Amino acid sequence: MSEIRKLKPEGLWRNFDELTKVPRPSGHTEKVRKFLVDFGKQVGIEAFVDTANNVIFRKPATPGYENRKTVVLQAHIDMVPQKAPSSSHNFETDPIQTRIIDGWVYGTDTTLGADDGLGVAAIMSIMESKDLKHGPLEAVLTNDEETGMYGANDLPTDVLTGDILMNLDSETWGKFVIGSAGGVDIDTSLEYKEVENTYDAAVKITLKGLRGGHSGLEINEGRANANKEMARLVRKAISELGARLVSWDGGNMRNAIPFKAEVVLALPKANVKSLEKMVAKQQELVADEFKLIEKNVEFLCESVDIPKTLVPVEIQDNLINSITACHDGVLRFIPAYPDVVETSSNLAIINITSNKASFKILVRSSREDMKEVLVNRIISCFDMAGMKSVASGSYGGWDPNPNSEILNLLKKIYKDQNGEDAIVQVDHAGLECSIILGKYPNMDVVSFGPTIRSPHTSTERAEISSCEPFWKLLVKSLEEIPVKNR
């Protein structure tokens, strides 16, 4: 039996353990959708998949609670598939291997999937329970949140009837989120005709060991972006050693700070030793610059087969210039809340081959005007490189309502149970609440959850001690949901 099944609350961890056995990386959620629908039928509730591939649950009220407001519980079913370089894990086929270390649950060299598997597991536990007291319940378990919030964006406007939305995707226990940033994806690309390679050597440079992390929650921590740091080295190699760009592969998730990048350069064989020295010196430089943040910076240099073609020199220079100039990181903090990021961008994915370049950037902001400012700035940067850019998947921010009825109820219960006040704040990370509110504008919304750290990385972990009080708060709040207005 898995160790985590011995943890409290038993139902939450048992259901989370079952989830870890079902592959559910973003873009491949068919197995978990079937698992959840089968689960719903087994426990005797209504369960189906809507037209956006979201799983919908409905559970009737406990006798005597039929007149309470209907609560919609919400979490997302997909997980970010990140793994350590040494891992051979296949997220489409392999279960997550959990382990307990010093009061935290980890995966084994992979993301754990607590984001947002613990939210899903909590909902499953509520739905299967026969002794909890609650009014009418619905649940929407959204599809592919991590890659573009597709399930929320395509959620039908006639599938939910609830008055209150409890999003279970926040990641610090004791904090109630009542607002979040909006976002937009930028995809930029350029096709070109490759040119013949005349150089007699080729080298692959790998930058790895960076922390990476969540591009909303951790963008303010000054973590190194592998694509940006690689660009510094490549510019030097081109200008000082006559190197030419063959390929670039950096980052793999739009909402994860890239922790690894690989570049292949062609160059005269006589300059290979000089490149190796340059790479070693760059490792020392980056390690020193980020010494309080990044502990495992590693630049590797290895000879590879000589390629037949290269990126044309003018295209190469434009691409490197655009990567160097593209904004990445925090642009501005909220003036009224100077500790909260308002606007940021993440240069998330770079793929360059001998005949095509494609980049993906995620822009976040709690202000629509500043989101537009940063999008235009980034697109202008790529325009100068002759690239074609498309902004898509835009979603608005979630405007906070400090007078929310469900918020005030949760604050009261939290203080009664824990003897202290909860924190109420706005997050820079994007939550699906704003999108769902756009479709169901009369809902009263709040987000909370147990403590999770380093989501979107192979060191993602969930704090065991936060899960039981989270569960107790959720159960008590459902019991005390107010009567529906007539």
TrEMBL record:
Its cofactor is Co(2+); Zn(2+). One of its GO terms (biological process) is proteolysis. Keywords: Cobalt, Hydrolase, Metal-binding, Metalloprotease, Protease, Zinc. The keyword Disulfide bond does not apply. Residues 206-290 form the Peptidase M20 dimerisation domain. SUPFAM superfamilies: Zn-dependent exopeptidases. It catalyses: Hydrolysis of dipeptides, preferentially hydrophobic dipeptides including prolyl amino acids. InterPro entries: Peptidase_M20, Peptidase_M20_dimer, Peptidase_M20C. CDD domains: M20_pepD. Its EC number is 3.4.13.18. Belongs to the peptidase M20C family. PANTHER family: CYTOSOL NON-SPECIFIC DIPEPTIDASE. This is Cytosol non-specific dipeptidase. It comes from Prevotella amnii DNF00058.
